[in-house]
Amino acid sequence: MTKNYFPEGFLWGGAIAANQAEGAWDIEGKGLSVADVARFKPDVSVKDYQQQWHVDEQSIAAAIAEKGTANYAKRRGIDFYNRYEEDIALFKEMGFNVLRVSIAWTRIFPNGDEDQPNEAGLDYYRALFTELRDNGIEPLVTLSHYEMPLHLVTHYQGWVSREVVDFFAKFCRVVFEEYKSLVTYWLTFNEIDSVFRHPFTTVGVVEERYPDKASAEAAIYQALHHQFVASALATKYCRKSNPQVQIGAMVTKLMTYPENCHPENVALAEKANRENHLYSDVQVWGAYPQWILNEWKEKGIEIQMENWDLATIKLYTVDFLSFSYYMSLVVSKDADQREKVSGNIATGVKNPYLPMTEWGWQVDPIGLRTSLISLYDRYRLPLFVVENGIGAIDTPDAHGEINDQYRIDYFKAHFEQINLALKEGVDLMGYTSWGCIDIVSASTSQMSKRYGFIYVDADDYGQGTYNRKKKKSFAWYQKVIASNGADLD
Questions:
Q1: Would the CA dihedral through 439, 39, 53, 230 be positive or negative?
Q2: PROSITE patterns in the record, alphabetically (predicted)?
Q3: Which of 77, 89, 262, 408 could serve as a FRET partner for 391 with CA atoms 20 to 30 Å apart?
Q4: Which of 483, 407, 410 is nearest to 438 (CA)?
């Protein structure tokens, strides 16, 4: 039996996002966000991640005109806004000492460009963070989790507009000051690397506004640069508000393998992994790698920068690196001739050695160990796994119980690999499973794609009691946390 290497004080918990959980989309002054435009698309394959994420001008207009929630599941969420005390009590029962949440920017600044914050929004998050603290749970708070104000898309150009950096900086200064005694751990941008996977959701770029793919690509890179600057400014203001807090970056870890040892395939995998590292390289090392500068030059992309941008990025680097991990990828020089798999993250060549979920995600626990070791060797900063989990259709049995042994098996395999990474010397702060309670899917706006240890009685169309019920995995994760990762049976 392998020795347990999970350190004392390890942070165990779960993760949710405001736009997928809170609901209450139009009360107490909240404005529309990009998430409120995300339409449930039952007519689109759940494996077609590009169409599931895609938003154009017509769909924005339709969403603004629609005042209800029927087609927009993220407007409903799971009613966490009103039920958070009940949910936090369940998290405490499971043994959580950390919960990752996000602040909906539009609860604080409904349009994003107001002079003064919305007090009702500030009061809500103060009550939420206080409730977590009172239950012995550290809030791990993401500042921007696919929730930018829609007004900044319709009246500006999303993050392509320089003004948005200033609007976000104001938002950060307000929440850091408000919650400096309640929040110890902050994250800047959720999966900042997702700018090309779903540019509308991540940076408010509507690709149809640009005449061709090249100009849209340049706009997305411009928006990314502005987010890097904003992340550095957030780090600056966070430390100024309370020098004891820690602030981290958050990226998607996409471990890419070559199909075989053919040198061309190895080179393709190396290129894919280097591109995945771009986003953490900038926030950890404080500078753009030379290869991306060369690429911009070759493509004729000119990033507009203030004369202090690069110095700011260099000066205010993050304290730790957090990441999501769901799947690994395979690349091949003969990709056109290979079977493909896809999820809501990326598409790649099918790996014949891995099982696959109903949504096209290939399950690879060893890839998590490899990712942890490679990231720690590269950056020598504390790491934090802030998203990991399996989406599945959970069906209550005749007695109303949810026997999700498949979820237990999934987490057990991943925790075993985390333990082996810890044995190799990786400095890991904690682990928060994604969707620790069932929430609306980020990509497909479904409720039927369930990740939680806690079942929420609601379907894809918002029908149900929304009552909470423990799944079989609830007691198992409770035992894992109580043993600090030692008891996985």
A1: negative
A2: GLYCOSYL_HYDROL_F1_1, GLYCOSYL_HYDROL_F1_2
A3: 89
A4: 407
Tokens 């946390």 locate to 481
Q: Tokens 């050695």 map to which residue? A: 353
The arithmetic mean of pLDDT across residues 261-287, rounded, is 97
Can you give the residue ranges of every domain in the chain? Answer: 11-482
**Per the residue annotation, which of 306, 387, 401, 424 is the catalytic one?**
387
Place of tokens 């790996």: 351
pTM of the full structure:
0.97
**Cβ contact 333:261 at 8 Å:** no
The Cα 405–Cα 476 span in angstroms is: 10
Residue 347 has what pLDDT? 74
Give the C-alpha separation, 297 to 305, whole Å.
15
* Short-list 440, 323, 458, CA closest to 391: 440
Q: Do residues 120 and 29 lie in contact, with contact meaning Cβ atoms separated by under 8 Å?
A: yes
Contact 191, 250 (CB under 8 A): yes
Active-site annotation holds for 387: yes
Tokens matching residue 318: 């993050």
Other Cβ atoms closer than 10 A to 470: 17
Q: pLDDT tens across 215-248, in order?
A: 999 999 999 999 999 999 999 999 999 999 999 9
CA distance 82 to 377: 43
For residue 100, what are its two tokens? 């990752």
Pairing of strands 454-456, 468-470: antiparallel
Per CATH, the architecture of 11-482 is what?
A: Alpha-Beta Barrel (3.20)
How far is the CA of 438 from the CAs of 462, 466, 469, in angstroms? Answer: 13, 10, 10
CB burial of 1-13 (b: ≥16 within 10 Å; e: otherwise) equals: eeeebbeeebbbb
Nearest to 91 by CA among 435, 397, 392: 435
Q: Give the span between the Cα atoms of 451 and 455, in whole angstroms.
A: 9
CA distance 192 to 299: 22
pLDDT of residue 384: 99
| pLDDT tens digits, 277-311 | 999 999 999 999 999 999 999 999 999 999 999 99
Angle (CA) 183 188 192, round 5°? 150
